[in-house]
Design brief:
73 residues; mainly alpha; two-stranded parallel sheet; 3 helices; 2 strands; 5% strand; binds zinc ion
């Protein structure tokens, strides 16, 4: 199984785009807005803020990986 298979992306472009978005978050080029619904040490790692660009990358990753226990606020 390849990384792309693991991501559950439909094609290479989708997987490359998702990896690029996650790399932007990891490198700090795209940051969480921290208005209460972003994942952090207090709230845990399962919250997502639909208005936050960093959270939207996580939401896309969740969907690609079949994660169902994240809570989108
Ligand atoms: Zn966020």
């Amino acid at each position: 199984m390849t990384l792309i298979d693991d991501l559950g992306a439909h094609n290479f472009d989708d997987a490359a785009d998702l990896i690029g978005q996650l790399a932007d978050v990891a490198a700090g080029r795209v940051r969480h807005i921290y208005r209460g619904a972003c994942p952090d040490d207090l709230e845990g790692d399962k919250l997502r803020d639909a208005d936050c660009p960093a959270c939207r990358a996580l939401i896309a990753a969740d969907q690609a990986m079949g994660v169902t226990d994240a809570k989108i606020l």
